Amino acid sequence: MKMRLVVFALGLAVVGCSPPSSQKSNPAPAGSAPPIVKVVAVESHALDTTLDLPAQITPYEAVDVYPKVTGFLDAISVDRGSRVRAGEVIIRLSAPELEAQRGQSEAAVQSAQAQLSAAEARFASDHGTYLHLTAAAKTPGVIAGNDLLVAQQTAAADDAQVQAATRNVQAARDNLRAVSQLESYLDIRAPFDGVVTERNLHPGALVGPAAGQGGAQPIVRIESTDRLRVTVPVPEAYVAGIHEGQQVMFSVPAYPGRTFQAPVARISQSIDQNTRTMQVELDFRNANREIAPGSFAKVNWPIHRPYPTLFVPLTAVTTDQQRTFVIRIRQRKAEWVDVQTGVTSKGTTEVFGDLQAGDEVVAIASDSIRDGTAVSGQSR
Question: Which of 9, 233, 326, 337 could serve as 277's disulfide partner, Cβ 3.0–4.6 Å?
């Protein structure tokens, strides 16, 4: 009985050591299956998005105030931060030499008027004599013809003297008016409503026109703060579709979390060749004077295409050292398609190349997927 049990155990051991028959009959396959990649379809739609662009805020009007005549700064009633109204006298100059010129001009006017009066009196007398002789000459033999001719020429000369004296009076009055105009420049007035942002000179300073003595720097600078220009340098690629009146949102660092709105007011209609941008201005009514001129702004610039373009996910575009491309799956093979990228919006980017809407491209492209290799696409 014990011998039978031993023989049976040995038999089981031999059977357990032998290889399975199935492993012998099914060898490993010669090649592996094509890799499976996630694919997405190329989409087509009209671009309608926004892009953050930097901008500069400047006053609608700004001027450096220089004197028009040379004189001493007698009084200045404003300082940095002062608000002024258009036409308000803010600076007074003194120029004694202008007072002397005015006196001379007034005397010249009076002298010219006196000369005119004398000339008119002579003309009246001589013209009256000529008329009397003309009447007497109607009686034959009473007046010699030469006497009548002399009287006529004398009256004509007197008339010419009157005309010359009249012109002298007008010239003297014009000169007096010019001196008076120069004197009016001694009172410097604000050219528009605004705020004084700089004051460089003080009473007692000798000032003059910008080209003359004392004109190296302005007396004050005035800027309008109730109305501002938001100047946006729009890149060449994004200028299509801009029109006046279009409302645009922007923000400034002084008010984080807040947005402001202004219409497009002025378009330069020309691309700057140095920066490849077009200057566009928004017209912002700064009624509460919240925004300071000189601030930087971030403009939420709207971008529209009047025609549909193609879009793929950002990850579907890859590049190597020589080209930018997407990987299209066609007939279970990878195909590199060169593209140019456009605007990025909501995780997708515009692509321009040999593509059509509905083409399947690798969702996460990599140059490790070589052109022409066999792949199997799986929609996400």
Answer: 233
